[in-house]
Structure formats: C-alpha cells, structure tokens
Specification:
Layout lengths: L5 E5 L4 H11 L6 E5 L2 E6 L2 H21 L3 E3 L4 E4 L4 E4 L2 E5 L9 E5 L8 H5 L6 E6 L2 E8 L2 E5 L10 H6 L6 H12 L4
C-alpha cells in the first residue's frame, strides 16, 4: 500500500511567523514548508513521495550526463520573496549551464497527496522558468509565459527530453534498473 504525505495547512500566518518556522526547522529538507499570502503548508513527505522524486532526479541527471549538458542539482532550495509573500521548497531543483543564477531554472514537485496550497501560484513570482509536477504517474510541464505559468506539451528547458518515457521508468525496483532501462530505451546504453 502506497504511503501518503502528511500535510497541514495553517491560515492567517504572518511572514515573520513563516520565517521563524523556517529558522526552527533549520537546514533539514523535511518537513517542506510553503507559504502563499498568509497560508502556510507543512508537508512531511512519505517514503513513496521521496522515492519518486529521487528516481526523477536520477533519470534527469543520467540523461544530462549522457548528453554532456552541464547541470547543478540544488535539491530543496528554499525560494522566498517577502514582497510577494511567497516561499516554497521544491522536491528537486536544477540550474543548467555554468552561469550563476539566483533562482533555479527547473523545479520538480511530486504531488502524491492532494490538499495543500497552490504551488504554481507560489512559483509564478519566484523567478523559476519551469515547474514539473508528477501526478499519478504523469509528469506535467508548466512554463513561464508572459508572467504566468502555462501548461506545456514538453519542456522548454530540456526540449529533447522525453518525459513520458522518463515517467514510464518510475515503476522499476531500483534506480539502477530505471537508469539502465531508460538508457536502453533511448539507445544510449553502453
């Protein structure tokens, strides 16, 4: 039986309260804390959530390595903007290329359990170019277009990456099996 996430949403939380909660939690990546205009979500990811986000990250990284694409994984980087009253910690974040950036180009969110605050609304003002949501076995891509996220057919950050194929590898018994099968399907297995 899949293990769900534990989500608590608090209302009427000030920015100062949000920052204090982040400070109390410290440098740990869990629980993940999101903030949107007075709404605070505290999410403790379950095992299945963590497995899926790790598989996606490993497959993405293997794909980039095989193609010589420079990348820096930045994990659950806390992104926040006081003036917009928004803060979020993605499951995984990435910067591509070697240029220094203040924000990741890609954030990945695993939505195992419904019921939290609107993460896309948080990301819209935080300078992230693209967000991928894994929901029920499918990776949905949202790209920034004229100041708002729009659902896209494929990634603009990594347009050659077949996300349907990547998502089909998430049921493997291990990351080793998933990466091996992914590379084989792409014709890059050695």
């Amino acid at each position: 039986m899949p293990e769900g996430d534990h989500i608590v949403v608090l209302h009427d939380v000030t920015w100062e309260d949000y920052e204090r909660i982040l400070e109390i939690r410290g440098e740990h990546s869990a629980p993940r804390i999101s903030y949107l205009e007075g709404e605070l979500e505290i999410m403790s990811p379950g095992k299945d959530h963590e497995v899926i986000k790790s598989f996606i990250g490993c497959l993405l990284e293997a794909w980039c390595l095989d193609r010589g694409i420079q990348f820096t994984p930045v994990g659950s980087w806390t992104l926040k903007e006081k003036k917009d009253l928004r803060g979020v910690e993605a499951d995984e974040c990435y910067i591509f290329g070697t240029k220094h950036r203040e924000r990741p180009q890609l954030a990945i969110e695993v939505e195992w359990t419904r019921g939290g605050i609107d993460k896309l609304a948080i990301y819209e003002r935080l300078g992230v170019d693209e967000v991928w949501f894994w929901r029920r076995g499918v990776i949905e891509v949202y790209g920034m277009t004229r100041g708002a996220f729009r659902k896209m057919q494929r990634s603009r950050v990594l347009p050659e990456l077949d996300l349907e194929l990547l998502a089909s590898m998430l049921d493997r018994d291990s990351v080793t099996d998933a990466v091996r099968d992914f590379r084989k399907a792409l014709g890059t297995a050695s």
